């Protein structure tokens, strides 16, 4: 079973809680996906955590584990402050750490990310860093105290799917024992299945479900794709070959010449 | 029949109109000192059920498609039936396709047709969706106009502290929106701003699709333009944030550069009342009727809800309506 910071997590799909047509549809989609962890943005969904509010009560009523995030933070200081507020508001030491470095691509500022991760880990947080697929940065994040890595596979909300499979494979190969969660860029269930087949531990997504024409059905499809990808990885998929190989034995066949 | 309506927002006033025009003796009370400032006051005033269908359930279309006719009949001259134009920047045309796939009631148009509809947008967009059947009104003029008309019809209004002591009535209708504190009701904060410029003329609401910050600009008389609106899961009523102002202004500027030189004459915040499915409800408990949860569709859905509630109050609802109600 998936283990994140010592917690056993049955589902390998993590869902975001933004952009759904309504909270009722969000709740149904989360149920249909089978997700056990949902991410919640302190800023956009609770207005800075000042009110707590009904939306938060609704999420609590779903009985899922909450992973607060620092979405929209552009500096180390902002991210650290937001993480500390999230710890109070959501009563968890888990934090999905985002430090955005480019407004257009929402690409992580990996230097700020490593610094913020070090500060938060030293403060007792269990950090889930949203990072690129860069191998060296991944190593630095682990040095900083992270025990989970969340590389993107494409920019946030772009729905482009895995852009650099070699980099994702390389990360998996170098860090076989670190839980790796693909966060951001997944557009379709086949994208999720693809990264799960590479041996990734889980997938985190939001827009692909929330903005689908039928979010509940799409959540269900993603749940199945993640499970199928994981099972395929464990079953040991074939590597591609350059030659055709007949699936019916040829030896012993009758020869008609 | 004496009816006491709590709340002088769009829900309360449309219900007062339905009841009063059917002969009920209506009093409207509101804890505010005047109509200005409630959530309806901050509304866009778009009667755009097909556009809204893109992110809402079918009920919003079926309940909302008669709204323009209702307002036209109640307040002749207020409704502008010029349709809605939905545009996207060249790099975001995929958003137009997506929007179109999720609704109906439009035709896709090209740059020439855009220029014919809105000459000031000539050359800015290569394609758009035109929702010909949609309409808009100025919500503030409509609320004040409805209040004046209702007063002439004999409806009594009590605002401010006096409203706490409510006169006796056969039926009470609670139309208090987010202040109603109903179970399951939540607040969705909306922020908007009003710009004034004589450099731009628009005949109809224009929605600018953007993957991050979709906005609309609604023209009003006096060279005013309402730019809205944020959607934040919060019932905090404080002033608009700097970020929201930046995003709304950015979008307005993207629609037409002359908005960069406009005067920012007002910013506003309203708390939309919504149930978890974002659909409105009429409920009866003893001799109290509650209409709430109109979310971002106040002017669009209030007429249909008022008609429904009035039928319940006056006992004229059909057997079918009763049966439908029982399902909820």
From TrEMBL, chain A:
Pathway: Cofactor biosynthesis; thiamine diphosphate biosynthesis. Its EC number is 2.8.1.10. It is found in: Cytoplasm. The active site is at 96 (schiff-base intermediate with dxp). Gene3D superfamilies: Aldolase class I. It catalyses: [ThiS sulfur-carrier protein]-C-terminal-Gly-aminoethanethioate + 2-iminoacetate + 1-deoxy-D-xylulose 5-phosphate = [ThiS sulfur-carrier protein]-C-terminal Gly-Gly + 2-[(2R,5Z)-2-carboxy-4-methylthiazol-5(2H)-ylidene]ethyl phosphate + 2 H2O + H(+). The keyword Transferase applies. 1-deoxy-D-xylulose 5-phosphate binds at residues 157, 184-185, 206-207. InterPro entries: Aldolase_TIM, Thiazole_synthase_ThiG, ThiG. Keywords: Cytoplasm, Schiff base, Thiamine biosynthesis, Transferase. It is an enzyme of class 2 (transferase). Homotetramer. Forms heterodimers with either ThiH or ThiS. PANTHER family: THIAZOLE SYNTHASE. Catalyzes the rearrangement of 1-deoxy-D-xylulose 5-phosphate (DXP) to produce the thiazole phosphate moiety of thiamine. Sulfur is provided by the thiocarboxylate moiety of the carrier protein ThiS. In vitro, sulfur can be provided by H(2)S. This is Thiazole synthase. It comes from Aminobacter carboxidus.
From TrEMBL, chain B:
GO terms for molecular function: glycine oxidase activity. Its EC number is 1.4.3.19. SUPFAM superfamilies: Nucleotide-binding domain. Keywords: Oxidoreductase, Thiamine biosynthesis. Gene3D superfamilies: D-Amino Acid Oxidase, subunit A, domain 2, FAD/NAD(P)-binding domain. This is Glycine oxidase ThiO. Pfam families: DAO. Pathway: Cofactor biosynthesis; thiamine diphosphate biosynthesis. It is an enzyme of class 1 (oxidoreductase). Residues 2-311 form the FAD dependent oxidoreductase domain.
């Amino acid at each position: 079973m998936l283990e994140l910071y010592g917690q056993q997590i049955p589902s390998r799909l993590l869902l975001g809680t933004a952009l759904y047509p309504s909270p009722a549809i969000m709740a149904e989609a989360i149920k249909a996906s089978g997700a056990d962890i949902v991410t919640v943005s302190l800023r956009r969904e609770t207005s800075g955590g000042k009110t707590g509010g009904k939306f938060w009560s609704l999420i609590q009523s779903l009985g899922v584990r909450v992973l607060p995030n620092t979405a929209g933070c552009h500096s180390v200081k902002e991210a650290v402050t937001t993480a500390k507020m999230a710890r109070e508001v959501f009563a968890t030491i888990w934090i999905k750490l985002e430090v955005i470095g480019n407004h257009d691509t929402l690409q992580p500022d990996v230097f700020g990310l490593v610094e913020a991760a070090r500060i938060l880990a030293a403060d007792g947080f269990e950090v889930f860093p949203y990072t690129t697929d860069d191998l060296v940065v991944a190593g630095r994040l682990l040095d900083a105290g992270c025990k989970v890595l969340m590389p993107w596979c494409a920019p946030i909300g772009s729905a482009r799917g895995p852009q650099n499979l070699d980099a994702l494979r390389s990360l998996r190969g170098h860090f076989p024992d670190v839980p790796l969660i693909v966060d951001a860029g997944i557009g379709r269930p086949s994208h999720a299945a693809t990264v799960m087949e590479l041996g990734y531990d889980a997938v985190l997504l939001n827009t692909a479900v929330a903005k689908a024409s039928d979010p509940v059905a799409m959540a269900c499809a993603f749940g199945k794709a993640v499970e199928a990808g994981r099972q395929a990885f464990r079953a040991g998929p074939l590597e591609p070959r350059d030659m055709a190989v007949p699936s019916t034995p040829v030896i012993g066949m009758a020869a008609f010449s | 029949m004496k009816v006491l309506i709590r709340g002088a927002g769009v829900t309360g006033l449309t219900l007062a109109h339905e009841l009063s025009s059917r002969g009920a003796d209506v009093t409207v009370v509101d804890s505010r000192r005047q109509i200005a400032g409630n959530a309806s006051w901050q509304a866009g005033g778009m009667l755009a059920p097909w556009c809204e269908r893109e992110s809402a359930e079918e009920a919003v279309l079926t309940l909302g498609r008669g709204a323009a006719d209702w307002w036209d009949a109640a307040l002749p001259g207020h409704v502008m039936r010029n349709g809605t134009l939905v545009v996207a920047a060249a790099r975001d045309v995929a958003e137009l396709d997506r929007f179109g796939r999720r609704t109906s009631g439009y035709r896709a148009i090209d740059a020439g047709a855009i220029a014919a509809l809105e000459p000031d947008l000539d050359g800015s967009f290569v394609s758009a969706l035109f929702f010909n059947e949609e309409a808009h009104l100025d919500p503030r003029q409509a609320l004040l106009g409805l209040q004046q008309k209702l007063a002439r019809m004999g409806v009594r209004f009590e605002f401010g502290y006096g409203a706490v002591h409510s006169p006796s009535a056969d039926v009470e209708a609670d139309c208090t929106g987010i202040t109603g504190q109903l179970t399951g009701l939540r607040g969705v904060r909306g922020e908007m701003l009003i710009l004034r410029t004589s450099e731009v003329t628009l005949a109809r609401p224009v929605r600018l699709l953007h993957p991050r910050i979709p906005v609309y600009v609604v023209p009003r008389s006096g060279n005013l333009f309402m730019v809205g609106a944020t959607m934040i899961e919060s019932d905090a009523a404080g002033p608009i944030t700097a970020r929201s102002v930046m995003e709304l202004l950015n979008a307005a500027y993207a629609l037409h550069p002359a908005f960069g030189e406009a005067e920012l004459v007002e910013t506003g915040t309203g708390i939309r009342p919504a149930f978890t499915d974002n659909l409105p409800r009429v409920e009866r408990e003893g001799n109290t009727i509650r209409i709430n949860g109109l979310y971002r569709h106040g002017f669009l859905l209030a007429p249909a809800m008022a008609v429904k509630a009035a039928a319940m109050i006056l006992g004229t609802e059909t057997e079918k309506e009763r049966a439908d109600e029982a399902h909820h």
